[in-house]
Write a structure and sequence with these properties.
Structural class of chain B: mainly alpha
Strand content of chain A: under 5%
Number of strands of chain A: 0
Number of strands of chain B: 0
Radius of gyration of chain A: 18 Å
Strand content of chain B: under 5%
Distance between the termini of chain A: 50 Å
Number of helices of chain A: 10
Helix content of chain B: over 70%
Distance between the termini of chain B: 126 Å
Order of helices and strands of chain A: HHHHHHHHHH
Helix content of chain A: over 70%
Largest sheet of chain A: none
Oligomer: heterodimer
């Protein structure tokens, strides 16, 4: 039996309780948007993915069975699948366009420099294979524990560690110029 | 691979490799390491200078990753999601009501079975409705014929007029 702090809210939302639905959304929307934004690197697409994940939640809340899975893990999984769907529909051209970040020239201020660094990180993350990226986003940015991250990805903890290790190795190479500067 | 600690104790290759693998996978922040291995790993790194070099490398990557842009909240998205909830709650009520009725009338059956039975009953009722007017008219004619045959007034009003 999974001890889940969201069970009551999900069941109430399933009965049409608007306050419960709103509380559920307030608790989880920032995390889901964080995941989608870092997976998709596009704010509009990330918002669409999260909205579709919540639509699925509203549709299924009435049939939620407590104890079978942790609600947050389920919602992460639904959101991640929405992200995968969108990533697979993308074209290379669209990706190139999304990561076209200008090099900073001398004299640009710190804001521009930060934007440049952020752009470089997003580009490096986006160029990782989907599952390596998802593993790093879940463990580093979303601060999921290893067991929860493995459950979300539907893999073993050993497989998760392998994805993380390979992903970080690639990032270390691609972001070397940032770390050395 | 084994690492000689600062106090001269040589760690077992297995645990040493494992702790380095933790840093390679989860980074340098112990808070991200698996809880069960955290204390032992922290102790290992605290006494192994060579291992700490690799930990520092992992920390550099962590810092770089932390330079990613912050994800902004979206109030417009919140409004869209709640609008979807409001729009769906009406449909949910109908669905729940159908489920409640099904559980009491035909427990355990899929919804299409009682729905089909209801539709058939409705069709039979409508079909019977087409037949009923003829039956009533025949009855009325019979009553009227009987009244005339018996030489009785057709209604009290007619009797009053007479």
């Amino acid at each position: 039996m999974v001890d889940d702090p969201d069970t009551d809210l999900v069941l109430r939302a399933g009965l049409g309780d608007r306050a419960a639905a709103q509380a559920l959304m307030a608790r989880h929307l920032p995390k889901m948007l964080g995941l989608a934004r870092r997976m998709l690197t596009d704010q509009g697409q990330a918002e669409d993915a999260v909205q579709d994940a919540f639509l699925r939640l509203w549709a299924h809340a009435a049939r939620w069975q407590p104890g079978r899975a942790k609600f947050e893990t389920w919602l992460y999984r639904v959101t991640l699948n929405q992200c995968y769907d969108r990533l697979r529909k993308r074209t290379t051209a669209r990706l190139d366009e999304a990561f076209d970040v200008a090099d900073p020239s001398p004299g640009q201020d710190a804001v521009m420099q930060n934007a440049y660094v952020a752009g470089e990180i997003e580009t490096a993350l986006a160029q990782l294979p989907e599952r390596q990226r998802a593993a790093i986003v879940l463990c580093h940015y979303q601060e999921c524990g290893n067991i929860e991250a493995a459950e979300i990805l539907g893999i073993s903890v050993e497989a998760l560690e392998s994805l993380l290790s390979r992903g970080r190795r690639t990032l270390r190479i691609r972001l070397g110029h940032l770390r050395d500067s | 691979v084994s690492y000689k600690s600062e106090d001269g104790v040589r760690s077992t290759p297995t645990s040493g490799e494992r702790f380095l693998a933790l840093a390679a996978s989860y980074g340098a922040n112990p808070a991200r390491w698996p809880q069960a291995e955290r204390d032992a790993a922290e102790k290992y790194f605290s006494v192994n200078a060579q291992a700490r070099v690799l930990l520092a490398e992992a920390a550099k990557l962590d810092d770089a990753l932390d330079g990613a842009a912050r994800v902004e909240d979206s109030s417009a998205l919140e409004a869209r999601i709640m609008a979807a909830f409001d729009a769906g709650s009406g449909a949910n009520i109908v669905s729940r009501a159908a489920g409640w009725l099904r559980d009491r009338v035909w427990p355990g059956a899929p919804l299409w079975q009682p729905a089909t039975a209801f539709a058939l009953s409705l069709m039979i009722g409508v079909g019977a409705g087409f037949l009923l007017p003829f039956s009533n008219a025949a009855e009325a004619n019979t009553d009227r014929g009987a009244s005339v045959a018996l030489g009785e007034p057709l209604s009290l009003e007619l009797t009053g007029n007479l």
